[in-house]
Design a protein that fits this description.
alpha/beta, five-stranded mixed β-sheet, 6 helices, 15 strands, globular
Length: about 220
């Protein structure tokens, strides 16, 4: 049932559970949340876990963050050029200064969080981001954010769209090496890439891909 609900509703569920796990909200949840993730898992596992998983299934807005030295638990957004006009709700943030999380295959990734409240101007307040495992992301659309391919893509993607990205050789090698076998759709739109690197990427497309689109490519020789 949760799969049929709008992403915005899933975000409200997550935000409510972060702030008020024991009672129905009379108003928008306060930012002075005290419940920890472990407490929420005990209090409402049947709602919290599916809601969080559904909320991050479609990921199309990403940001880089670093700890705010003046506000414990809060973050400052550091890629302002791309995000200065965005509300950060439903953004996936990557904390580059935190220890990398290693999966069962030994692949390390920066910790990921679902932002439920915050903006570039004000940053992300404490307790307004929920840790999420990379494996929960199924559909990923990356627009202009080439920096995201400095890191390994989520391991269980079924659809990946790249739009307006410039892929250097090391991006292509990392992406080609770690395209997951679960991938069924790959769309490349207005990508700038070396023609040899494009060949490298295409040769590594998983056999399960059934929907491949290559549109308006900008090839460098």
């Amino acid at each position: 049932m949760l799969d049929t609900l709008p992403l915005e509703l899933m975000l409200i569920v997550c935000k409510h559970l972060l702030n008020c796990a024991h009672s129905l909200p009379q108003q928008w949840p306060s930012r002075e949340a005290s419940a920890s993730l472990a407490q929420l898992a005990r209090v409402a596992p049947s709602c919290y876990v599916p809601a969080m998983t559904t909320a991050v299934r479609y990921a199309n807005l990403f940001c880089l963050v670093k700890p705010n030295p003046d506000l414990p638990g809060a973050w400052i957004v550091i890629n302002e050029r791309l995000l200065c006009t965005h509300d950060l709700a439903v953004c996936i943030d990557l904390d580059l200064l935190a220890p990398r999380a290693t999966d069962k295959h030994g692949v390390a990734r920066p910790p990921m969080y679902l932002v439920v409240g915050g903006s570039f101007k004000d940053g992300i307040p404490a307790r307004m981001a929920i840790p999420v495992p990379a494996m929960t992301i199924r559909y990923m659309k990356v627009v202009f954010s080439t920096w995201l391919f400095d890191y390994v893509v989520p391991p269980h993607l079924t659809a990946l769209t790249l739009e307006g990205c410039r892929l250097e050789m090391f991006h292509v090698k990392l992406l080609a090496t770690h395209l997951p076998p679960t991938l069924r759709r790959l769309w490349l739109d207005a990508i700038q890439i070396n023609s040899r690197d494009l060949g490298t990427l295409l040769r590594q497309i998983p056999a399960g891909v059934r929907d491949l689109a290559i549109v308006d490519m900008h090839l460098d020789d």
